[in-house]
Each structure stands twice: as C-alpha cells, then as structure tokens.
Amino acid sequence: METKFHNFLLLAISLLATQLPSSSSSSTSTIKKFHFNVEWKNITRLCHSKLLLTVNGKYPGPTIDVNEGDNVHVTVTNKVARNTTIHWHGVRQMRSAWADGPAYITQCPIGAGKAYTYKFSVVDQRGTLWWHAHFSWQRASVYGAFIIHPRTPFPFSLPIYPANVPLIFGEWWNEDVERVENEMMLYGGGPQISDAYTFNGLPGPLYPCSDKDIFIQTVTPGKTYLLRIINAALNDELFFAVANHTLTVVEIDGVYTKPFATTAIMIAPGQTTNVLLTADQLPGPTGIFTMAARPYLTSVFHFNNSTTIAFLKYQTNPTSKHPPIPPYPLPQNLPNLEDTLFAANFLNSLKSLGSKNFPCKVPQRIDKQVITTISLNLQDCPNNQTCRGFQEKRFFASMNNQSFVRPSISILESHYHNQTLGFSPDFPERPPFAFNYTGVDPFAENMSTSFGTRVLQLPYGAKLEIVLQDTNFLNPENHPIHVHGHNFFVVGRGFGNFDAERDPLGYNLVDPPERNTVAVPVGGWAAIRLVMDNPGVWFVHCHLEEHTSWGLAMGFTVESGREASQRLPPPPSDLPPC
Ligand SMILES: *[C@@H]1O[C@H](CO)[C@@H](O)[C@H](O)[C@H]1NC(C)=O
Ligand SMILES: *[C@@H]1O[C@H](CO)[C@@H](O)[C@H](O)[C@H]1NC(C)=O
Ligand SMILES: *[C@@H]1O[C@H](CO)[C@@H](O)[C@H](O)[C@H]1NC(C)=O
Ligand SMILES: *[C@@H]1O[C@H](CO)[C@@H](O)[C@H](O)[C@H]1NC(C)=O
Ligand SMILES: *[C@@H]1O[C@H](CO)[C@@H](O)[C@H](O)[C@H]1NC(C)=O
Ligand SMILES: *[C@@H]1O[C@H](CO)[C@@H](O)[C@H](O)[C@H]1NC(C)=O
Ligand SMILES: *[C@@H]1O[C@H](CO)[C@@H](O)[C@H](O)[C@H]1NC(C)=O
Ligand SMILES: *[C@@H]1O[C@H](CO)[C@@H](O)[C@H](O)[C@H]1NC(C)=O
Ligand SMILES: *[C@@H]1O[C@H](CO)[C@@H](O)[C@H](O)[C@H]1NC(C)=O
Ligand SMILES: *[C@@H]1O[C@H](CO)[C@@H](O)[C@H](O)[C@H]1NC(C)=O
C-alpha cells in the first residue's frame, strides 16, 4: 500500500511536470492545432479490399491528445465528393455550439473540397472521449480517440504505464457502408449486418481470412495499465473481458467513478470506459491472454453474434518466441449474448467519484420534468414501393411519437437568428397518451408514428429531468441515448414502466454516474438530470445509428443567459453554408 501510494505521488508529480507547458499557469491556455483530411484509403480486411473513408488515411483515425484547459483547433478538409462533418463526442462545447458537428443541427455539412476549422476549448473535463463523423453513416470508419490529460493528479493509484493506446471497438462491412445505409432507407428494412467487430480496426483471428489482423497490446508483468475503451460500433452494445484478469473501472465518459473491480464490462455505442488492468497472472508459454468483445443482444432482429478478439501479450523473457496458436480460449468471464442481468448489475455499480476535488454536482431540485417514450415504429408501405421491414412495412423510430425528420438547414443558425425556420419548438413534454409502455403486445398494436422536426425550448440555467421510457413496440431494446453539449446524471433506472410516484423515491441524488450516453434498460426506463448551462442547439439521439436514421432523436434549444459569459458568440466566418 505504502509503496503504491509513494509511486502514485511520484508519478503524479512527474506527470504534472510533463503535461504542463513549463511557462504556463492555469490562467494561460495553449492552442493545439490539428489537421484532419477526410480522404479515401484502400483498406483490406477479411480478404476484401475497398476504399474506406478515413481521416488522414488512418483506420481508426488519429488520436487527439490535449491537456485540460487547452484551446483546440481542428481544421477538417473534405477531400472526397461527399459531404461530411465531425463531432467531438462528449466535449462540453461551452459556448462553442458552432463546433459541435452534427449535420443540420449545429452546422451545414462541409462540402467536397471545402474546409472548416472546429474551435473549442476543453475546460473542466479530463479523460477519454472520442470523435467521429456526424454525417450519414460515415462514423463507421471515421472515428478516433480524444484524450484530455488532467491538470490535477489522477485520484487513484496511478498506472505505472499509462498505455495511451486506446481500445476502440468498431464494425467492419465488406461493402461500402453508404450503400448499406441507402439500401436500408430505400426499403425501410433493417440494415445489412456488419461482417466483423473490430479492436482498433482489426477483426482478430476468429473471422475468416483474418489471422494476421490482430491487435496486440504488450504488457510488462507486474505493471498496471490504463485501458481507454471506446465503443465506436455503429449498432451494437458490447461486452468486453480479458481472460484471467479483473478490470477496475475508474472513469466513464470522461468522468471519474468510484473504482470497482469487475470481471467484464458492458459498453454501449457512444460510451467510453477507463479501466485499470494489472498484469499479475502467470502467462503460459505463448505469453498471451485473449481480450474479447461480443454484442449484448436485446433485439430480435438480425445481429451478428460473432466475437472479436485481441491479445494481451506479456513481455516475458526474450525466449518467449512461441507464436500464438489456435484455439484461442475466450475469457471465461465474457457474459453471454443476452445477459441483461450482468448489464444491469454492471451499470448499477457505476457511481460518481464525488470527492472534494471532483464533486458530484447532481441537481437536487428540478425546474422541469420531461417524460419521453423511446420507441420503434412500423409504417404501412407506400403503394408504389417495396418494403423490407417487419410484415413488409417500413421501420421507423420515435421519441414521444415524434419521428425526427432531419431538416435541410442548420437549426443552430436559424435559432441564432431568432427564427424557427426548418423546425418547430414544440417537442411534446409527455407521451401523447399513457399506455402500458412495456406491457403491450409488441406486434399487435398500431405502431405508427408522427413525423416532424420538433425541439424542446429551454431557458438558460433550467434544471431538467428527462425520463426515457422504452416501449414494447416491435421489440423492447436497450437504447444508448446520447445528449450533445451536456453531461447528465443518471439518477434512476429500472425495468417496466416508470412510476412517477414511487420511482423518484429511489433516486440516487448523492453519487449517481455522470456521463453523456445512457444505456436505457431493455423494456425499462432511465431518469437523467442536467443543467441547461450551455446556450445553443443540442441533438439528443439514440447512438445506434440505424435508430437515428429512423428518427429516434430530438433536440433542445438553450437560450443565451444575461451575462456576456453566458451567450452564444456569433457564428465563425468559415461556417459551411447550406
Ligand atoms: C486496393 O488494393 C488491393 C490490393 O492491393 C487491390 O487489389 C485493389 O484493386 C485496390 N482497390 C482499389 C479500389 O483501389
Ligand atoms: C457474422 O460473423 C461471422 C463470423 O462468425 C462472419 O463470418 C460473417 O460474415 C458475419 N456477417 C454476416 C453478415 O453474417
Ligand atoms: C486462466 O483461467 C482458466 C480458468 O480458471 C485456467 O484454466 C487457465 O489455466 C488460466 N490460464 C492461464 C494462462 O493462467
Ligand atoms: C449466432 O447466429 C448463428 C446464425 O444465426 C447461429 O447459428 C448461432 O447459433 C448463433 N450463436 C450464438 C452463440 O448464439
Ligand atoms: C410513389 O408515390 C408517391 C406519392 O404518390 C410519389 O410522390 C412518388 O414519386 C412515387 N414513387 C415512385 C418510385 O414511383
Ligand atoms: C435575438 O433576440 C435577442 C433577444 O431579443 C436579441 O438580443 C438578439 O440580438 C437577437 N439576435 C439576432 C441575431 O437578431
Ligand atoms: C403492463 O403489462 C405487463 C405485461 O402484460 C403486466 O405484467 C403489467 O402488470 C402491466 N402494467 C400495468 C401498470 O398495467
Ligand atoms: C394506425 O394509425 C394510423 C395513423 O393515425 C391510421 O392511419 C391507421 O388506420 C391506424 N391503424 C390501426 C390498425 O389502427
Ligand atoms: C402516434 O402517432 C400516430 C400518427 O398520428 C398515431 O396513429 C398513433 O396512434 C400515435 N401513437 C401513440 C402511441 O401515440
Ligand atoms: C451537401 O450538402 C449540401 C447542403 O445541404 C447539399 O446542398 C448538397 O446537395 C450535398 N451534397 C451531396 C453530394 O450530398
């Protein structure tokens, strides 16, 4: 213990020394500049070569490494004949809504041959976040880690080797993803499922023609590592485990948690999880332990139930030349595909650190409560079309029975000019009528929805509670709901219907987890609280990309406050036009 603490102090000091520019004080800030070229790159996986959309030819894209407090300028140059935008997932974007990135919400897309410089600062945030394209399904390959190094000491006994290699999960399609998306939208069916899950872009040896495409993390026996885990998969929640090792969760979505040991994690698309792993096992002759990820399935519709593996390789004596040979035993701790109990227990174990330096600022009282269903829907097939959804109809999805229709202008620009062009500020604060949301027969009801571009209008500083209620329509499912521009506190979650009388009594208003993406329990609900302290327009959507395409989204506008420091500045001069 003593030694550990001593090491921790030493490391904390050396880390601080290496991370703070020598001349800087907390009042000066540094500008960190990055150049992102969105370009095609010929990439081969599973013996299929294709032109893949990338940033700077890298798959996954480059890691952004900055220090807490930095000003960040990323110039994105679009070198392809398609539109694009980039979103900095989890970055608060305080008073910089223009740099948030979702197409047609905060900006028009960056057209072919054009550039836009995203300018924002990372204040009072630290840890692992990520970035990804926010146009169409481009985030299938356009994504990377966004690491904010803390200016204050890490509040845990520090990893000796802060492995800055993130572990990013993704999905690989042998086909062009734009074609997959277009086909889904044309016929209204589910998307063609991916051909593989990936670790840092590599499917691993359990897939055909993939023996060499294995991510390998080498470790020194006895040392502790910080693994920065990011789920960038398009449509799948994942379980992750490392054979024979326990994981200690210390951070989620860039916010410290009370550390807890677990045999595996569940991570939804959009979420990040930092875990400590100590290389404290006795390796066999190959020195290899498998790391594995496979989906947490709550959908009855087609999913690829396969597993991606990577290797944790102990750097043993130079004599360890044995190549790893199959079979590669899966971690015994890896939960089964439908292990909702594991997912629920894991998520219930997450608590904010809530220390003196990192307090948990959950609002104790609220100004407004919004209750919204999150739902799948079915629409009759138009007479002259072929539809491939359930019962030959078209799939849609909605919140409070509003299926979000993407506008053709930027909502933020319209809002900034005090207009409501292209959207209406009347998102319903309650479901249109109350029914047994999680008790109805999934297939017998009228599952149609309404369409619109409706947002919630909120005053500056409002303290909001949103209850997200899953429904049984078609398929109760675990939905990862992401809120742009704000972190929120998950004060309650449960199965079945939210009970407005009883459930708030069980809220955690002491140390609830703070994050930017909540996995709403399958056939259940989650209550989140957040403060509208950031003027602008903010997208709220399911981070399963197919559900966003079907309309499982809404937005809110936050007015500027009275003080100059509470106002949204004018749009930058290089903001792309529509
Ligand atoms: C990509 O590279 C492979 C292997 O070098 C090659 O066979 C294929 O023609 C290339 N594809 C494209 C679209 O350039
Ligand atoms: C699903 O996973 C398997 C590996 O088990 C893979 O061979 C297959 O191509 C994947 N995709 C589809 C569409 O089935
Ligand atoms: C890992 O754990 C399994 C199950 O407990 C055990 O059979 C195996 O020998 C262990 N592997 C190594 C390399 O220690
Ligand atoms: C995965 O899906 C395939 C094809 O649908 C099925 O044959 C197989 O049993 C499934 N595997 C698991 C572990 O559920
Ligand atoms: C189908 O019918 C709609 C409404 O009558 C029409 O607007 C649309 O162009 C038709 N589409 C095709 C593919 O014929
Ligand atoms: C929008 O309305 C506010 C409040 O009336 C005003 O201060 C602001 O200047 C208006 N903005 C524009 C762009 O007209
Ligand atoms: C909702 O439906 C479920 C399943 O039929 C039933 O168990 C539950 O009691 C119902 N809840 C209410 C409030 O009616
Ligand atoms: C479902 O609702 C739609 C839209 O209101 C309506 O056109 C349709 O007739 C309804 N279907 C049933 C079976 O109630
Ligand atoms: C949703 O809206 C559609 C179209 O107006 C209507 O038919 C349906 O009954 C509504 N469903 C719910 C659950 O409110
Ligand atoms: C790109 O976006 C602009 C603005 O919305 C639109 O006018 C244009 O048609 C889009 N171009 C492509 C290739 O999709």
From TrEMBL:
One GO term of the biological process aspect: lignin catabolic process
Reaction catalyzed: 4 hydroquinone + O2 = 4 benzosemiquinone + 2 H2O
Record's signal peptide: 1-25
Localization per record: Secreted, Extracellular space, Apoplast
Residues forming coiled coils: none
One Gene Ontology term, aspect cellular component: apoplast
EC primary class: oxidoreductase
Main function: Lignin degradation and detoxification of lignin-derived products.
Name this protein carries in UniProt: Laccase
Source species: Salvia divinorum (Maria pastora)
